[in-house]
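Entry 12.
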Amino acid sequence: MNKPLAHQDPVFGISAFKDNYIWAIETGHNSVAVVDPGDAEPVLAALDQRQLTLSAILITHHHRDHTGGIKTLTETYSVPVYGPGNEQIAGITHPVTEGDQVHLQARLPLQVLCVPGHTLGHIAYHGEQMLFCGDTLFSGGCGRMFEGDAPTMYSSLQKLAALADETRVYCAHEYTQANLAFAKRIEPLNQALVMYMEKVEALRQQGLPTVPSTLAQERAVNPFLRVDETVVKAAAEHYAQQPCKNAVEVFAALRRFKDES
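Predicted 3D structure (tokens):
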């Protein structure tokens, strides 16, 4: 990818592995911070290509495809490494938690949000209408619950869904098409979803990323943010073969359905 995603967007994506995105955030003249560098090599290549230097590293959670490049990058650049304070991640110099701020530059403070569920210590970074949410929220979907439970993950998603409509969602993987295919099974008559699927298909045919999306877009198409919708609840109950008494039970059934799809 290695190119700006939108005009005047202070963020560009660096592709890694099969479907990871490492996000690079402009932090000043010819400098960037990177989010979740699972692999150092594409980051170093992008910095060299663009004649940029590294100013900071931000980590959302401990999985290797998000942390594997820390050591090499910090051997090359002496920079602060921010990450969740209650996960064991080698190389973290600035452990952070809910309510902390990361100041990448004077005009760009990012708020730290605790969003456990995918992992117990997962965090996100939010500011300037940008959300770097790792593997908690995806376009059209959400992360698997490797360490948390359904109430925990549901609460984390609700926290993110409460942010402003225009918030751009910089998730860490290109999972959108598969997520939307599942969403279509849940809400086949959702016209916003149909239109978004067409847009995503056109982007992928051109080899372009489908993210960032926006929270307004996600609230319109993402079944994991739409558990109060009658059609979504009915689909969850049909899968579970029993009534869902509340939104958390709808979410839990949807997540199991997606895991088994």
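Annotation: The radius of gyration is 18 Å. The first strand starts at residue 11 and ends at 16.
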